[in-house]
Design brief:
Blueprint: H1 10-19, H2 24-42, E1 45-48, H3 50-65, E2 78-81, H4 108-115, E3 120-124, H5 158-165, E4 171-176, H6 182-188, E5 191-194, E6 214-219, H7 222-232, E7 263-267, H8 277-292, E8 296-300, H9 308-323, H10 343-354, H11 357-370, H12 376-396, E9 402-406, H13 422-426, H14 433-438, E10 442-449, E11 455-461, H15 467-481
Parallel strand pairs: 2-3, 2-4, 7-8, 7-9
Antiparallel strand pairs: 1-3, 4-6, 5-6, 5-10, 9-11, 10-11
Length: about 500
């Protein structure tokens, strides 16, 4: 599969709309026509929001006609994951328990899209409450990988990744708690960045793991991904974990500088062992490419990486058990009252029928690890591992500018292949979880294909607030390899 270099980018599309060459409403007509054509096979969307999108598009066209200034990406259609609240639009989180719920308010990230006149065309499918690595845990539909419709798109933001990969939209938003943007980006052949924790407001994002969650963008190339992150980032007083970004947040200032003279460390514990052979080969080729481009590439050992999955599935499930306690059928969502005669029975039946198997599994794991007598042995110990992991990464930044590793140990697997083996499913995120546990930024970019022509992802990690550096390295690699705006054959 060779990259489709003629594929229009989101930035190009914005410039065409801004100049008057194209009408934002006409672009939307084409977008919804493509979704209508493609999504019967891909299954990326749960809800389409035509009314909202056309209102924004018409506002863009009025401003263009009046020769008013437009913000970056104005008029460019975008999709959002269905755990990001939009005013007056259903939010399902891919779960039956939120059946019938319509959000009375919008997330800060959504409001920023609205302020920047970016039409949101719909809400995308996801693993239920963002718990999964394949989007197979959605209670509502199956999403297929556009490169092979028999395979998963990754998860939990599989709908958003698939929508971009198939070209239904050029950019989208997901959320990343343990790799839920970067892993599907790798499996679908697109770009996805998880920014520094606190860079994007979590207000209005339905919480899974509050110390881990970050709203994060997908794009078909580095520039579009950087522009989308620019649109949604920034301090928000409504989010107590929001932070004022440090350093330069102009992601385009140094993006074309190249990487000559940079020191790149590859994580030894995530190289070779346990990797699909083609992934390992592609990663070795990426190391050579970076070296040929003038970077110094050296091995770095991060021993705590081997503990990341175990620690994460204590921390994340503990936070999930607390966050999901609010879904009880009393205040919002579906309520199961048939055949019950007291409120406890109603709670039990609502949650039993409303939650899927994976969500129940994680609630039980989290509740157990927080329970009396086990808190120190499990949750307390996991937090100690997390602290050690943070320190180990801090030590690494003294020796290297960025770190690299494969994004996922495998390419996209067949739908149903790992559905009955949660441990194997959890190990899909072995390389992405450390980023969430430490709060640092990480980006996944395409770096090759396996023998079945399925995309392979390269992950680039940096210190806190180093998004500009990550985009610079990613852009240099993209420019050198030509792996940009990839398009599946049938799309």
């Amino acid at each position: 599969m060779s990259p489709n270099s003629e594929e229009i980018t989101a930035i190009d599309l914005h410039e065409q709309i801004k100049s008057g060459k194209r009408k934002a409403r006409e672009v939307l007509d084409e977008t919804f026509a493509r979704i209508d054509k493609m999504d019967t096979q891909v299954g990326a969307f749960l809800t389409l929001t035509q009314e909202h999108a056309y209102q924004v598009a018409d506002e863009v066209d009025r401003k263009v006609a009046a020769k008013e200034n437009l913000p970056m990406l104005a008029g460019v259609p975008i999709a959002v994951k269905d755990n990001i609240n939009m005013t007056g639009v259903p939010t399902t989180c891919g779960s039956k328990i939120l059946g019938g719920f319509v959000s009375p308010y919008g997330a800060t990230a959504y409001q920023k899209l609205r302020e920047r006149l970016m039409p949101v065309v719909g809400k995308t499918n996801m693993d239920e409450f963002a718990m999964g690595s394949s989007t197979e845990n959605s209670a509502l539909k199956v999403t297929h990988n556009p490169w092979d419709l028999d395979r998963v798109p990754g998860g939990s933001s599989g709908g958003s990744a698939a929508a971009v990969s198939s070209g239904e939209v050029l950019i989208s938003l997901g959320s990343d708690t343990g790799g839920s943007v970067r892993q599907p980006a790798a499996l679908c052949g697109v770009y996805g960045i998880k920014p520094t924790y606190g860079t994007v407001s979590r207000y209005g994002l339905v919480a899974f793991g509050s110390s881990l969650d970050q709203i994060s963008p997908f794009g078909r190339n580095v520039h579009d991904t950087a522009a989308t992150l620019s649109a949604i980032m920034g301090f928000d007083p409504k989010d107590s974990t929001s932070v004022e970004p440090q350093g330069s947040q102009n992601y385009f200032r140094d993006i074309e500088m190249g990487i000559r003279g940079l020191k790149v460390g590859y994580i030894q514990e995530l190289k070779g062992d346990g990797m699909q052979p083609e992934v390992a080969t592609s990663f070795d080729a990426a190391i050579k490419t970076l070296t040929d481009m003038g970077a110094e590439v050296v091995p770095i050992s991060l021993s705590t990486v081997n503990l990341a999955v175990a620690a994460y599935y204590i921390v994340a499930t503990a936070e999930a058990s607390s966050n999901l306690a609010r879904f009880d059928g009393v205040r919002y969502g579906a309520r199961k009252e048939e055949g019950v005669n007291d409120i406890k029975a109603m709670y039990r039946k609502t949650r039993m029928d409303g939650f899927g198997a994976e969500v129940k599994r994680r609630i039980m794991l989290g509740t157990f690890s927080l329970s009396s007598g086990y808190y120190d042995a499990f949750y307390g110990k996991a937090q100690k591992v997390r602290k050690l992991m943070r320190q180990e990464f801090e030590d690494a930044w003294r020796d290297v500018d960025v770190l690299i590793c494969p994004t996922s140990p495998t390419t996209a697997f067949k739908i149903g292949e790992k559905a009955d083996d949660p441990v194997q499913m959890y190990l899909s995120d072995i390389a992405t979880i450390p980023v969430n546990m430490t709060g640092i930024p990480g980006i996944s970019i395409p770096c090759g294909f396996d023998n079945d022509n399925m995309p392979i992802g390269l992950q680039i990690l940096g210190p806190h607030f180093s998004e500009s550096l990550l985009f610079r390295v990613a852009r240099a690699f993209e420019r050198e390899t030509g792996l940009t705006n990839l398009q599946p054959k049938w799309g």
